[in-house]
Design a protein that fits this description.
Blueprint (H helix, E strand, L loop, with lengths): L1 H25 L6 H21 L8 H9 L9
């Protein structure tokens, strides 16, 4: 679920930057090679950093580890 959220946020970011770039071209702002490089960096770098830095699944805590080792007591094992 967390990985889907990260991917969804990256896609939303790319789509938002593309929409802003299209609006800027529609309003008549010059789209040169230099601005193309800046827009490309704005699209690629932040989601890449977000996907690399965002932590994955949290590590197992001691309580979770002990609980899985002990496990619930079954009725048959009380004899």
């Amino acid at each position: 679920m967390l990985k889907e959220l990260r991917t969804r946020l990256a896609v939303i970011w790319v789509a938002a930057v593309i929409v802003i770039a299209a609006c800027s071209v529609a309003y008549g702002i010059a789209f040169t090679a230099n601005t193309a490089v800046v827009w490309l960096m704005a699209v690629v770098i932040p989601p890449a950093i977000m996907l690399l830095v965002w932590p994955g699944t949290p590590p197992v805590t001691i309580a979770e580890l002990l609980h899985t080792v002990d496990g619930p007591v079954k009725e048959d094992s009380k004899r």
